[in-house]
Each structure stands twice: as structure tokens, then as C-alpha cells.
Amino acid sequence: MLLPQAKRSSRPPGGRSSSPQGAPPTFFMTPVAYQFIKRLLILFATLLLVSGVIFLVLQVIPGDPAQIILGIQATPENLQALRHKLGLDLPLPVQYWNWMSGALRGDLGVSITYDVPISELILSRLAVTIPLALLSIFFAVVFSIPLGIYAALHRNRPGDYGVMVFAQIGLAVPAFWAGILLILFFAVYLQWFSAGGFKSWMESPLGALKSLLLPALSLGLIRAAVLARLTRSCMLEALGEDFVRTARAKGLAERVVVYKHALRNALIPVVTIVGLQMGELLAGAIVIENVFNLPGLGRLVFLAIGQRDLPVVQGVSLLIAFFIVLVNFAVDVIYGVVDPRIRAGSEEI
Amino acid sequence: MEIQAKRGKWMGLFLLFSCLVMGGFFTSEANAQKPVPGGTLTISLAAEPSGLDPTTNPSAAIKRVVHYNLLEGLLKVDRNGRVVPALAKSYSVSKDGKEHTFVLHSGIKFHDGNPCTAEEVKFTFERLLDPKTAAPYRMYYEAIESIQAVDPTTVKFKMKKVDSNFLFNMARGDAVIVSQQSADRLKSAPVGTGPFKFVEWKRGDSVIMAKNPDYYVKGLPYLEKVTFKFIPDPSAQLAALRAGDIEVIAYDLAPENVPALERDARFKVLKGNTTTDAILAMNHSKKPFNDPKVRQAITLAIDRKAVIQGAVGGYGTPIGSHMDPTNPYYVDLSGLYPYNPQKAKQLLTEAGYPDGFEAILKLPEPYAYARRSGEIIADQLSKVGIKLTLEVIQMGQWVDRVFKNADYDLTVMGHAEPFDIEIYSRPNYYFRYNNPKFLELIKKAEGEMNEQARKKIYEQAQRMLADDFVNVYLFIYPALPAMKKEVMNWWKDYPTIVVDAGEVYIQK
Question: Percentage of chain A surpassing pLDDT 70?
Fold first, then answer.
């Protein structure tokens, strides 16, 4: 399998893989605490690096925020006044320092377009995007893993071909197009759902969930296709292993062989990919939130880029980076749960 | 397209016929025309406004939500393009044109209950002229010397010089009357005098407003609640209308979606004009575009009809100069220099380019009509030997390179500002058109108080732009509002940048 290796290399350097050799100083803290602090430091270093890159990139892209806000007819005096108001006339290091010191206090500044604190804005958007991401992962996992197992157990039989055709279609269809088809069928033709928009959780929790179903489905289908193929091939690989033959030879029930022995081993790469997909979902959400007109984080950052609402773009990018680093960490933990060998390994350190 | 047009004709005949028959059954036609109060309306707009203050940010998206609905000026431009009274019930100009007097309706109240009097008018314009406010269109009001609140309902503007555009400028969204108590909250919670009160701005989703029961025009508005919902994607807009999430697409149904919606008996599409002049701009500071012969050749080599068909589904109005048909001074020059590729070739030869030349056409990425127009124009110009390279660029880049630094050969752009012909009097504007005679004309028009004489001057100005082949004037971007059949009194044409729900009603 190529993918788990790719995952390993994407881990921050100095992670667990190097630990068994490099003996950590254990005289003033427990090894687990040492690992934790090391991870925390890496997390901060990563975020610092990312924040610097985000800041610089936004300085380089063409388009003066003041000009975009005031329009093409703006007079030079007005432009200068607005730049001053936005703090854009300060030297770059000072701007960066102001941003970062604010961010550490949890203050990401005020949105130029919406005139509300950015942290507040992001929180309200997360109430859309996080449930959307979770729901689509839920759909992806619920569809794909049983399908993948089924296909592996019925290899080269019609059921397997059926699953593979579904997976091919899922891979070929872009999420936004799947979204449009779902809208046409369920909203325009059947009128079961609204064609887009979002009811807030406060107003009606069920309505909010309902408005996320179609977008989550269109995001989830593509993921399901990837996961179904992966589950199938990993299952096939695991079913061919010696320990499965041994289990069968012991006379274990086929159900136990498949689910306890083969599946648990096959799931490790699948969990890795699910984790990677979580991070990727935020990017996927940009497109789907526009198709379904959902006021989520993706749409926020999409519009903010167009309107050069730089504080918002910076804040959201930082958050996404933070989120991806965090998900990577969570994936490592879940590995341990799925595969006891990894857990045992980490306890040895 | 032919077949569809024919079918459209038959449909038209059929509808006409059925209307006549129905008319016989329902003799009380007048009853059906009578506005009915009540109901709510959800209207979609593509762009979410950046803040809700039209006085400090020139964005059209802001005016479309707040102007007329929440905030009003002394005057307004009505749906026929005429300047008519709004908060002022009457107005007059002194003989020398240097003093304007406005008389307000009595008993006007802001949504927060404070009265709106001459004092607020004075405050509004003093705020607008204060450099600290950084009003983007302060120049429209710079001819004001002083403002005097004579009594609670009378206000006098003393002018530094005669400015015949003053009344039109008073009707712009920049000149809405605001109160001292709430001016600094305009951006997030505007308080005005309009037929609707601001309720909530759900950022990223919608702006909600409710009927103002104390509105000074008795009987208005009809609607109880209006929601502006922001749906940027054209197909998402269409789906939302069909699924019943929204009742109206304010003015910008995508042209390619018109036929589909027209076949659906539940909806209607109005086809009108906006103030957006789509032009092929030419850089006069660059060779060979400094040669009028070359510019004429380009003009003659472009078939506007084909451009309109391909870029906006055939719905735009062809133009021959920089003015839109909703403007009272408009004169139709679209037939002045018709499509003539042979003559174009001959002119190129006379100008010293018998084999044509190569140039770059820069197209702004956000505007589909501009990109499509560019593709068609490139094809048409290639037939007379002019080879264009298309470059699609981001808006930020367009502003920076094309607009500010005139670093371009050709570009396609829609000029949305109403009545903006004066841009041609600025030699450093991005066309780099430098004609002192034109500047003279504009100055003369601004100082001319006689309406007939003014019209003549503006006609002359339009002709001068056409005869100088300053740019290629392609078409007026169509207004395509689409809505449920029951929605009545919606605007067809958009002579100013506004989406007015104040007189709209829902037929029961």
C-alpha cells in the first residue's frame, strides 16, 4: 500500500517513528508527557510557519483591499484614508505582529465586509461546516465499508462488479455536479427538500439537519467511492495473509475470521484516508457550500478572497491549518484503537 | 434558435388569445389590478453586500438591498428613469441656478422613532462632505457651498457653481438621508425612513426587513416582510426559484436560463435594460489604437448582433455610444456604423496594416458576458486579419493593470454606473481618450439649466464618442428579473442601481 506511507511522510518530522531509537530524557517527566509536549511544540511551530506563509501570500496577490472596497472611481485621498483605517499603511512586520498577537489572545480582528469580530463569524460558520463534514464522512463510511467488504468477499462475481461500477461513477462525478443532480431531483422535481440555504440550529434543529442532507450526500458519495475501492483491496490483501489461513485452520467461524481478523487489519489504511479526507473536506465544502448556498466556512473564505477581506482569509486559513494538524494527531490516536500493535508500541516508549 | 423563436411567437399568440377569452369571463379586470396588502417575499440577489452603508462604500450590492427599501434620499429615480420627489415633496431652483430649495413631507420618522427634518438633511450632507467620512462619491456633492435648515420641513442648498446634474446626484444611493443618532451604525444596522425596517442581517445568507407601519406614503408598502437572499450561483438561483425557496430573482436571471423558465407556466420573466454599457475598450495611448482609422476598422469588423446572441442569449440592446436607453438623454446610434468587414479591411490597409496586426484582449474573470463577448470578438476580428490573444484576468489584476495603469491593448468591460458619460472628459481615464472638445461639451452641459438645451448637448456628446470611435459600444446588459406569476409591480428596467420592493404586491 502506497497511501499509508505517504501519510507517514506527511507527519511532522520528529514524530513517533523516530522515538524508539532516540532515548528521551525521562528524569523529570513521564515519556507520555514528553511526547505530548513535543507534539504541542511541533503544532505551534507548524502554525507559526503556516501563519507566516499565509500572511506573505496575501501580500503578494494583486488587488489592493482599499481599492476593491472603494471601487474603481475612488480618489487617492479616500484610498489613503481607508488604508490607514484598516492598518494597511503600517510596515509589514508590524502588521504581522498585530495579527499574531491578537490571534494568540483569540482576537482575529474584525471582518471588513461584515463588520463583526472574525472569531464570532468563524464560530457561526463552523456550526454549518463541521456538521456538514461529519455527516458526509458518516455517509461515506456507512456506504463504503460494507460495500468494500461485500465486494472483497464476492470477488469477480456480479456483486463485486456492481460495487466497482458504483465506485467508478463516484470517482468520475465531481461533487458539485452530483449536488446539482440531487437538487434537480429532490428539490425541483420531488420538492422534498429546499434547493439550498440553511435553517439555523436554533430555529429548528431538524430543519438544519435536513438542509445539510443533500450537500453531505453529494460530498459523501465521492468519498464513499474512494473508500469502497480501498476497503475492497485491503480486505483482499488481508484475506490472503497467513494469519487468516491460520484462523480458518483453527476452525473459527467465517464471520469471526472476516470481521475480527481480516477487517481489523484492513481498516488501518482506510482510517488514514478517512483522516486525510476530513482535512480535504473543508476545501471540498467551498464548492458544495456555493452550490447549495450554505453559509459555511468555505463560502465565507470564497467570498472573502473575492472581496479582499484579508483578515477573514487569514483567520480562516489559520484555522484550517490548525484543524488539519489536529486531525493528523487524532488519526494517530485512532490507529492505536484499531491496531493494538501500534498502541503497544507507543506505550513502550 | 429559429424554431424556438417561432414557438415563442405561437405561444405569444396563444397567450394573447387566451387572455382575450379570459377577459370575457372575468369582466372585473380592474379588480385584479388592484394591489393587495399583505404577504411576504423572498428575493434572491447574486452578491452579498459588504456592509449596509451606501454612503461610505460604492458597492452596487449595498444599494440593491438598502436603497429605497430602508434608506431614502430627497429625490429618487423612478422606474422610467425620471428624477421624482421622494422625502422632498417638492423642490425648486433659483433663477441663477445657484440655490436649490427642498420642501420635505411633514411628519417623516426614522425607524427608531426620531423625526426626519431639515436638520437631518443638513447633517447628512455635511457628513458626506467631511473628508473624514471618506465618501467614495463626494465629488458629486462638492458643488454645495452651504446647507441651511430654514424651518423643520424646508432646506436650502447654496451652490458654488451651477451644477445641472445636482438633482440627479441627489437621487443617488450615496445621498440617502441619515440621522445623527444612527449614522455610525449604518454599516451593520441601518436606520432610515424607507417603507421597510431593518430586522436582521444573517451574514452569508440573507437580510430580512419588515413593513414600516409609520411610512409617510399612506397605503405603502404592501408587503409585510421582505427577505433578500444571497445566492451567487446562477443555477442554484434557478433551482431555488423552482423549488419555491424564493419568489423572485431580482434582476439577473442568467440569459441561458430564460427559455427554460419561460416554458414553465408558474413563472414570468421580464426583459428590460440596465445601465450597464458593455464596451470593447481601446487603449488610445498605444499603437495602433491611437489611429482613428484602426478604431473605426475594429468597430466595423464587429457584428454586435452576433455578440449579443452569443454573450447574453440575444437579450441585450445594441448601442452606438456610451449611454443607456433608460436615460432621458439617450439617442439611438446603434445603426450609425453597421457591421461591414470589407470596409474594415480597406480602412486597415489605408492605416498601413494591410495584413492586420496582433493584440492582446484582457477579459475580467468574474463576468461571463465579458468573457463570452471576448471570444466572439476575437473570432470576428480574425476575419479582417487582427489576431487577438485572449487573457482572462482576476478583477484585482484588472483594476491594477488595466484601470489604474492602462497597461493593456483591448478589454471588455461593463460600465454599470448610471449616467457616467463624463468619464470620457478625464484624459487619464483608462481609455486615455484626450479630447478637449469633449471636456468642453460636458462642462457646458453641467452649467446648462435648460432641459432642452441640455438634451441637445448630451446628444452631441454621444455622437462625438461614436464618430471618434473611442471604444466599440457593444450592448446594454439586459435586466432579466424572474418571478412567480403572482408577484406584481416589479421593475422591468433598471435606470438606477436599486431593487425596489416598496410598491410590489402579491396577487391573490
Answer: 83
Chain centroid to Cα B237, Å, comes to 21
CA distance A168 to A145: 16
Nearest residue of chain B to residue A68 (CA atoms): B396
Phi–psi pair at B308, nearest 5 degrees: -65, -40
Do the beta carbons of residue B227 and residue B208 sit within 8 Å? yes
Q: Enter the DSSP assignment of B257.
A: G
- Mean pLDDT (chain B, rounded): 89
Q: Is the pLDDT of residue A28 over 70?
A: no
Q: A with B: how many residue pairs have Cβ under 8 Å apart?
A: 133
What is the predicted pLDDT for the residue at A339? 64
Q: Is the peptide bond before B221 cis (omega within 30 degrees of 0)?
A: yes
Residue B418, pLDDT score: 86
Residue B148 phi/psi, 5-degree rounding, is: -130, 125
Dihedral (CA of A315, A318, A320, A323) sign:
negative
CA separation for the pair B412, A212 (Å, rounded)? 39
pLDDT (mean) for A60-72? 74
Q: State the Cα–Cα distance between residues B483 and A277, nearest whole angstrom.
A: 40
Higher-confidence residue: A307 or A239?
A239
Interface residue of B66, B140, B205 to substitute, partner A, most A CBs within 10 Å: B205
The reported pLDDT for the residue numbered A188 is 81
pLDDT band at B92 (very low <50, low <70, confident <90, very high): very high
First to last CA, chain B: 36
Collect all residues of chain B within an 8 Å Cβ-Cβ radius of residue A69: 50, 57, 59
Instruction: Determine the distance in angstroms separating the CA of B181 from the nearest CA of chain A, rounded to an integer.
Output: 19
% of chain B surpassing 70 pLDDT: 94
pLDDT (average), residues B488-493:
94
Indicate yes or no: CB of B50 within 8 angstroms of CB of A184.
no
Other beta carbons within 10 angstroms of residue A320's beta carbon come to: 18
pLDDT in tens, A188-215: 888 888 877 787 787 788 888 888 999 9
Pick the closest to residue A271 from A332, A340, A345, A347 (CA basis): A332
| ipTM of this complex | 0.72
DSSP symbols for A61-130: SS--HHHHHH-TT--HHHHHHHHHHHTTTS-HHHHHHHHHHHHHTT---B-TTT-SBHHHHHHHHHHHHH
How far, in Å, CA of B247 to CA of A161, rounded?
45
Return the C-alpha cell found at B121. Answer: 438633511
CA distance A273 to chain B (A): 31
What is the SS3 assignment for B98-155?
Answer: CEEEEEECCCCECCCCCECCHHHHHHHHHHHHCHHHCCCCHHHHCCEEEEEEEECCEE
Q: Are B248 and B501 in contact (CB under 8 A)?
A: no
Phi, psi of A61 (to 5 degrees): -60, 140
Angle separating helix axes A31-60 and A310-338, nearest 10 degrees: 150
d(CA A86, CA A97): 15
Which chain B residues are Cβ-neighbours of A116 within 8 angstroms?
188, 203
